[in-house]
Amino acid sequence: MEKPLGTSLATSQEINDQVGEYFEECQVYRIDHYLGKETVLNLLALRFANSLFVNNWDNRTIDHVEITVAEEVGIEGRWAILIKPVRCAI
């Protein structure tokens, strides 16, 4: 899941609560949207440079890829959710 979630602390908590109904916390991966920028920019290079992906990342296995870069709000009121540490037993 991409952080920040929701449009306020309350909506962020609501989303996290709903996700928590279906997944254990250690099964959920959250990433700040800006930290994923470099990976998104390198998707094509990753796909063609890695033999594991060449036969699996194609039009037979992937319907479409959607990358949206549209942001009008900051992290106002959601800072507590962004810095919450999580521990998982493996």
UniProtKB/TrEMBL annotation:
Q: What does the record list as coiled-coil region(s)?
A: none
Determine if NADP is one of this entry's keywords: yes
Top-level taxonomy: Bacteria, Pseudomonadati, Pseudomonadota, Gammaproteobacteria, Enterobacterales
The Glucose-6-phosphate dehydrogenase NAD-binding domain extends over 1-42
Cite the InterPro entries for this sequence. Answer: G6P_DH, G6P_DH_AS, G6P_DH_C, G6P_DH_NAD-bd, NAD(P)-bd_dom_sf
Q: Which residues form the Glucose-6-phosphate dehydrogenase C-terminal domain?
A: 44-79
EC top class, in one word? oxidoreductase
- Keywords of the record: Carbohydrate metabolism, Glucose metabolism, NADP, Oxidoreductase
Name this protein carries in UniProt: Glucose-6-phosphate dehydrogenase
EC number(s) per entry:
1.1.1.49
Query: What Pfam families is this protein classified in?
Result: G6PD_C (PF02781), G6PD_N (PF00479)
